[in-house]
Amino acid sequence: MTQKTRSRSRAARLALLVAVPALALTTACGGAADSSGGGVASVSNAPSTDQSKDGAAAAKGGAAKGKSAFYDAQMKFVQCMRKKITKDYPDPKLSGYLDWTKIDALQEEKGNDVAKGGRDGACAPEMQKAMQLEPPRDTQKDYESMLAHAKCMRANGVSKFSNPKLQDGNVIPGGSDTNPTAPDTDRESSAYKQARQACKDKLLDGLDGMQ
User: Fold this and answer.
1) CA angle, 68 then 86 then 132, to 5°
2) Share above pLDDT 90 across residues of the chain, in percent, rounded to a whole number
3) Which of 4, 11, 137, 178 is most buried (CB neighbours < 10 A)?
4) Against a cut of 0.70, is the pTM above it?
5) How many of the other CB atoms lie within 10 Å of CB of 152?
6) How many CB atoms are located within 10 Å of the residue 49 CB?
C-alpha cells in the first residue's frame, strides 16, 4: 500500500471515531481526564451482551441489544457497501467491529471510495447507525492499550512513534504521521511493517489501525 493510500486510510478511521460522539471513546458524564496520562474515569459498564438473551428478545419481537445490535447494524452497513460500492466489502468481525486489515487491502485495490461510508457518503447513514450502537468502551483500558502499542512500536525500531493523549475525556490516537516520510517512520519500510506485526496484539479489538 502506498504512503498516500495509508494516510487516507488512517484518516478515514479517525473520521469514523469523531463522526459520532459515542465512538470518540468518551468517559462517563462528569468524568475527568488527566492529559498527562494519569488517572482517568472509565465509562460505565456496557449493557449485557449475552447473545442468547439478545436472540431471545429478537425472537419475541423485541430489539436486539449490545453486541448483537452492533453487529446487525454493521452488517447493514456492509450490505450497503456491497450493493453501492463493491461486492467484495468484508464482513465485520464477530465482535461487530470492521475488519480494517481486509478493508485496507481492499482500499489499496479499489481506491478511497471504500472508506468513509463509500463514494459521496453513499452508506453514511448506515455507518452512523452502527457507530451509535457501539457498546460503551472503557476509556482507561483503550488509552492503556494504545499506550502499550506506542511503546512497543518504539521498542521495535519506530523511535518517533508518539503516545496517545487524553483530551476532554477522549483518547486521541498516537502514531507517526507528524513526519511520515522520515526513514524510521516510513510505513512501507520492512522495519515499520515488522514493528506493526510485532505490536498488533497490543491493541484492543476496535482500536486496530487507529494509530
Assistant:
1) 30
2) 43
3) 137
4) no
5) 19
6) 16
